[in-house]
């Protein structure tokens, strides 16, 4: 049996460009690991302007965010993509609208995350990410309703602090020691409230802590999403090994 990439990956990026660069590296590393040689992942990237989207989100104009992300996804479809991934967690708040706007599948990052958590034997998890991810239902509800996970988040003061760290520091490439310590304390507090594992629910958070740094098993949504995208893009050629 021979593996080959049969599907072209479409990437909606720019939210922030730091996360898009991380996705690009992970996708190509995963494809090379599985295919060997000089292989990398075949993909097409549409980069949005994060400042524009961040302003819309802060004003609660998720309808405008949806329009921008959906148009990017349509452009990827026209460019030949076989499926689309959104390379950030928060824009998944409009994933349902984007999915209905295109005629190709959208791979939602909550699903491979939940599968990995369930396979690890965990059911009560702490969620860390932007304020939108922690407070809105688009991520937590999908984990709960489709996968039966009990999701808890930090108290409001910590949610506000973490959102500021992500938006004002990490999306600009700034990594502060005080922010590392704050994130680790949030994880410890979630553990004290019964979290069996932590969802690293923001593409920029790995800039602060590695998954091994958390006090309980940590699941990086970016890594899991990228691996799932490569899984979807690759297929086994049935012509290989078909003869006895």
UniProtKB/TrEMBL annotation:
Keywords: Isomerase
An MF annotation (GO) of this entry: amino-acid racemase activity
Matching InterPro entries: Asp/Glu/hydantoin_racemase, Asp/Glu_race, Asp_race
TM region positions: none
Lineage top rank: taxon: Bacteria
NCBIfam families named among the record's database cross-references: asp_race
PANTHER family: ASPARTATE-GLUTAMATE RACEMASE FAMILY, GLUTAMATE RACEMASE
Family indicated by similarity: Belongs to the aspartate/glutamate racemases family.
Protein name: Racemase
């Amino acid at each position: 049996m021979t593996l080959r990439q049969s599907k072209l990956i479409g990437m909606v990026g720019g939210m922030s460009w730091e996360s898009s660069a991380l996705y690009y590296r992970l996708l190509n590393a995963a494809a090379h690991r599985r295919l060997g040689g000089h292989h990398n992942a075949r993909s097409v990237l549409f980069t949005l302007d994060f400042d524009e989207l961040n302003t819309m989100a802060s004003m609660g104009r998720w309808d405008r965010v949806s329009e921008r992300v959906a148009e990017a996804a349509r452009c990827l479809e026209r460019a030949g993509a076989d499926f689309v991934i959104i390379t950030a967690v928060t824009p998944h708040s409009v994933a349902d609208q984007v999915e209905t706007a295109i005629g190709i599948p959208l791979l939602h990052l909550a699903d491979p995350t939940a599968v990995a958590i369930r396979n690890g034997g965990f059911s009560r998890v702490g969620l860390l990410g932007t304020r939108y991810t922690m407070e809105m239902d688009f991520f937590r509800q999908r984990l709960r309703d489709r996968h039966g996970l009990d999701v808890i988040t930090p108290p409001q003061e910590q949610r506000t602090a973490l959102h500021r760290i992500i938006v004002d520091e990490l999306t600009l490439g700034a990594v502060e020691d005080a922010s590392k310590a704050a994130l680790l304390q949030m994880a410890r507090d979630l553990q004290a409230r019964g979290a069996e594992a932590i969802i690293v629910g923001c593409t920029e958070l790995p800039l602060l802590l590695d998954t091994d740094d958390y006090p309980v098993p940590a699941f990086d949504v970016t890594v899991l999403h990228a691996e799932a995208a490569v899984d979807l893009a690759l297929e086994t050629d049935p012509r290989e090994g078909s003869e006895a």
